[in-house]
Design brief:
The chain contains 3 helices and 4 strands; from the N terminus they run βαβββαα. The protein has about 110 residues and is α+β, with helices and mostly antiparallel strands. It has a single domain, classed as Alpha-Beta Plaits (2-Layer Sandwich). The radius of gyration is 12 Å and the shape is globular.
Length: about 110
């Protein structure tokens, strides 16, 4: 089992989660983070750290979120590892409550 970053991270990209990850399984894109499912050890440390509840166990994904499991796997092969907390984008708070943000994902 792995944890998965879902849509609510897009354009918020808070990095509180990467700071607690013991295996550096987070990867950073322009406006989104992903978890490498091959590296994630299911330790659960990252999930409560996310201020926008963008990290879920794969077992907790709703049917309409299942594609994020594949998206995390795909993008983690392309994007660099992030292991230290960074400042959130300046407009992150404006995006926290926005739904259906997949169209804004930058690869």
């Amino acid at each position: 089992m792995t944890f998965v970053v879902v849509e609510s991270c897009i354009k918020c990209k808070y990095t509180d989660c990467v700071e607690v990850c013991p295996v550096d399984c987070f990867h950073e894109g322009p406006n989104f983070l992903v978890i490498d499912p091959e590296e994630c050890i299911d330790c659960t440390l990252c999930e409560p750290e996310c201020p926008v509840d963008a990290i879920l166990s794969e077992d907790d994904l709703r049917d309409d979120q299942q594609h994020f499991l594949d998206l995390n796997a795909e993008l983690s092969r392309e994007w660099p590892v992030i292991a230290e907390k960074k400042d959130a984008p300046p407009d992150a708070e404006e995006w926290e409550s926005v739904e259906e943000k997949l169209q804004y994902l930058e690869r």
